[in-house]
Amino acid sequence: MSRKSKIIKAALGLDYDQFELPGIGFDYESMMEKAGYSLEEVIKIQKQTNVGNTPLIEVKNINLLVKKLSKPGYGAKILVKDEAANPSGSFKDRRASVSVYHAKKLGYEGVIAATSGNYGAAVASQANKRGLKCIIVQETYDSRGFGQPEIVEKGRACESYGAEVHQLTVGPELFYVFLLLLEETGYFNASLYTPFGVAGIETLGYEVAMDVKAKYGKFPEAVIVTHAGGGNVTGTARGLLKAGAESTEVIAASVDLTGLHMASDLDFNRKSFTTGHTGFGFPFATWPDRADVPRNAARALRYMDRYVTVTQGEVFYVTEMLAQLEGIERGPAGNCSLAAAVSIAKEMLDDNIIVVQETEYTGAGKHPTAQLTFAKKQGIEIYRGDPKENIPGRKIVIPEQSNQIKAKEVNLDRIRKSYLKNTLEKNNIKPKDLTEQDLNFLAEETNTNAGYIKELLKELK
């Protein structure tokens, strides 16, 4: 749509051109500072609508199990930040709270968000608290009219908050309809990817750091963050840094859905997780500006120290483990990070602390039984066995024993190389034409240095 830039600009009240630099880069920190809010301001905003200050729980029975599975001296303590305690039941309330506050401050009558995840419910909930109207646009069905239980559940949640919900079939019409609604209503674009939204997540990382330090006298050695579009990793990492937890390792974790295309009508219902998976995690890490704003504030590659994947079967297993060992029933998104934590804790010393930084609410459509029943109807084979046999879209293999849970490493150099390749292609520029300012920008984007970038560029020639 030729009017895209004009519509987006009007729907955000923000001119991104002011942050552009000569060449390929833009001033990310300036964007976050000028367009976003300070940590203190965000804490104040979130307090007004009862967002944040969620419990940090030691999962004692799971920790005993991890110790039994670890060699002597190993088995880090796992803590879980229970974000389901937020008003709509997920960390997305943090993100929505600042966007909706900003929309209200600028005088918008309502807010719109395009999302099939928890964010829709969070925006609708926060809009109610601020007295704004709300529209949610969802990719819900395949061309046969079938929708995954989890997405349908999230649509119900949005409707229960009184939001106007537009449910579409998978495909490119989502963004088109989203733009038309923005233009027709004049509402605020409560995008997942603005500086306002990402600033809202910084309080999560900050609370994790400060809560652990207050109770254990030190910052956690590692924080595991479920990774999809990048905002969760970016906001949490920035919050940790603002708390002074510079040595805490930030580990991104996604459910492995390698080989499934999220925009494919055939693949749409062959995944059993609607977020926190590689279908978003890989593309948004290697090209973050694919978002519905000119410059995405969620730039996970800047902050990842490590990236791992787990299988769908491992997450289902850990979801049951959390319920049966700890008496805590939560939805699958946060349990992706918990599955990774059960694996990674075994390689860490027993006096180390590892934090799983989110849980999410559960509901009828999010239960493993609903998800697995639907998967079976789609022709996916489900059985207990070695999770290494898992094949996304064809087999879900649920572990028989806890010691079969094993997070798989993602080669960050390959991710960085893909990011560089995309950057060169999207900007139509050759490596030899990059300036020193460009190289420094790429180094910041990949959490490396200009020398590393030069070596990587040689491999792309």
Walkthrough of the structure:
- Helix content is 46%, strand content 14%.
- The longest helix is centred in the middle third of the chain and has 22 residues.
- By secondary structure, the protein is of the alpha/beta class.
- 53% of the residues are buried.
- The strands form 3 sheets. It has a 7-stranded mixed β-sheet, sandwiched between helices.
- Strand 3, helix 6 and strand 4 form a beta-alpha-beta unit.
Proportion of helical residues:
40-55%
Question: Could you give a short account of the major beta sheet?
Answer: 7 strands, mixed
Average pLDDT confidence is 94
What spatial form do the alpha-carbon principal axes imply? globular
Distance between the termini: 34 Å
- The total count of helices amounts to 17
Q: Could you list the spans in which at least 5 consecutive residues all have pLDDT below 50? A: none
Instruction: Record the strand order, biggest sheet.
Output: 1-2-10-7-8-9-13
Cα gyration radius (Å)? 21 Å
The secondary-structure element order is HHHEHEHEHEHEHEHEHEHEHHEHEEEHHH
Count the beta strands. 13
Which percent band covers the strand fraction?
A: 5-15%
Helix/strand-derived class? alpha/beta
Descriptive labels:
single chain; 461 residues; alpha/beta; seven-stranded mixed β-sheet; four-stranded parallel β-sheet; 17 helices; 13 strands; 46% helix
